[in-house]
Write a structure and sequence with these properties.
With 485 residues, this protein is mainly α. The protein has helices spanning 12-22, 28-36, 43-65, 70-86, 90-106, 110-126, 130-170, 177-186, 201-217, 221-236, 239-244, 246-262, 266-277, 284-305, 308-321, 336-345, 349-360, 371-385, 389-406, 411-423, 429-444, 450-458, 461-470, 474-484.
Length: 485
């Protein structure tokens, strides 16, 4: 549409575009034949045609985005100022500067505001407008100083945010005081002493996001909830900026839902999930993020409340919906742990094991190192449920070796590991039940420790143990416990 402008033509790059679109599998030779027919083909000429088509596609996308993108609108006005300046239309330049300044101020585009101030000085200098410089230089200099400070303020908050985010992604469960101290030191920066230190809306958002991350990582869930709610209220108080940055709003709403979930405020979680599902997206990426966040937290809700049958229906729905997202944009592996848990909850141990193995076989990275040891314990539990005694013996040895080399196990994980090792020698239902009761007592003794309590949020060991003691379904135990609470 952009290239033809409504007029059908025989241009070769249009033919190439159509030929690529009509292919189900990319075939270079077939494309050349479609475009050039029987004519001889120069490889350089074809490469240039592809490069030209690529450039035209980018220009078409830019043209489309200009209608709705704030950045494109501002850059377009800056380009117009440049075009008019070169031709000596200085008054027209000033008119555009005035309009662009209003828009940039409204959306806190401080870099653009600095460029506009630079244009004001350049035009006045070119016109030798000494009177203007004399009258306005103080204002221009003050605004430049202010916007530079605002940019620096945002940059410094971003630095703290990314440092904390990297630390948490590597180690989501704080296992020792040194890790907690490292995070606390990041928050000793003067910028984190008060929200008033944030010099703009964007900086305020970063300030609250930093504290939200911090409180979540140190297991201060009440403060995490309060900070998440405060951030959501801040964004909602600025509807213009909220509409412009839908991704920020999706992130804030998702964190608020998560914070309600860890406090067992399930009605608020349900309301939040409905709101998240109804967010009007501006980009395909936002749609993908909502899909991920909605189903991640919906799965978590079903798991936390023991509604595994409902979780299984959601799982099937999610797998159908995710087909619209290309593999390079969406990783189904993000859901493997939830898939495992849901299938474990409905006692489909074969599928639970399959997804846990998929999770364990993912390429290792710095991210979520804390769950590696937990996944190995869960792998043992599944084989225990499947009565794979011989394999369980081998896996116990490799798990002990893994945890010893990395020194990563929680106390609860050690106790479960010890129980599974001892269970191979236990004979008779009565003795086994007594062993489960002993395991429950030992876990209860450490369950109130913050780091141990956190591991219970990933997998409900207590409900699994009670299901074995009472001979009832895992999900039924969780449901009963939630009703009692």
């Amino acid at each position: 549409m952009y290239a033809n402008n409504g007029i059908e033509t025989e241009r070769k790059y249009i033919q190439l575009f159509d030929a690529i679109e009509n292919q189900t599998t990319f075939d270079e030779a077939a494309l050349k034949k479609t475009v050039y027919q029987a004519a001889p083909i120069e490889s350089r000429k074809y490469s240039e045609l592809k490069a030209y088509l690529y450039d035209m596609i980018l220009k078409a996308l830019q043209h489309y985005d200009e209608k709705s993108s704030l950045q494109f609108r501002l850059q377009n006005r800056l380009q117009n100022i440049n075009v008019l300046f070169k031709r000596g239309h200085y008054e027209e330049c000033k008119d555009i500067i005035y309009k662009a300044r209003k828009l940039a101020t409204k959306y806190e585009e401080f870099k653009v505001l600095l460029e506009l101030l630079a244009w004001e000085k350049k035009i006045a200098y070119t016109q030798s407008n000494i009177a203007f410089l004399e009258q306005e230089f103080v204002r221009i200099h003050a605004h430049e100083k202010q916007h530079l400070a605002q940019l620096s303020n945002i940059t410094n908050y971003q630095r703290i945010f990314f440092q904390i985010m990297v630390s948490i992604r590597k180690e989501n469960l704080l296992r020792n005081p040194e890790q907690k101290l490292a995070l606390q030191q990041l928050l000793e920066d003067d910028l984190m002493s008060s929200l008033e230190r944030a010099q703009s809306y964007k900086a305020s958002v970063l300030y609250l996001r930093i504290y939200g991350l911090y409180y979540y990582s140190i297991l201060e869930y009440q403060k995490f909830n309060q900070t998440s709610e405060q951030l959501l209220e801040l964004i909602r108080a600025h509807p213009t900026l909220q509409r412009e940055n839908t991704t920020e709003y999706i992130s804030a709403l998702s964190n608020y839902i998560l914070s309600c979930g860890v406090l067992d405020q399930y009605k608020k979680v349900e309301i939040g999930l409905q709101e998240l599902r109804q967010v009007k997206t501006k980009t395909f990426d936002d749609e993908r993020i909502i899909h991920f966040q909605y189903y991640s937290m919906s799965f978590s809700l079903c798991i936390a409340t023991g509604n595994f049958e409902q979780g299984l229906e959601l799982l099937k729905s999610q797998q159908r919906e995710q087909k619209k997202f290309e593999d390079r944009l969406f990783e189904s592996s993000s859901f493997y742990f939830s898939y495992f848990y849901i299938y474990f909850g409905v006692a489909d141990y074969d599928k639970a094991l399959a997804y846990l193995n998929e999770w364990l076989n993912l390429p290792r990275s710095v991210e979520r190192q804390d769950l590696q040891s937990l996944a190995r314990i869960l792998n043992l539990i599944i084989h225990y449920e499947m009565n794979n005694t011989l394999l369980l013996e081998y896996l116990l040895r490799s798990s002990y070796r893994y945890l010893r080399n990395r020194n990563r196990a929680h106390e609860i994980e050690r106790q479960v590991l010890g129980f599974l090792k001892d269970s191979l020698k236990i004979q008779g239902k009565k003795a086994l039940k007594a062993a489960f009761i002993a395991l429950k007592t030992s876990i209860e003794a450490v369950a109130d420790q913050p780091s141990e309590n956190a591991i219970l949020r990933y997998f409900n060991f207590m409900a699994w143990i009670d299901s074995k003691i009472e001979g009832k379904e895992f999900g039924a135990i969780i449901k009963r416990k939630k009703k009692l609470n």
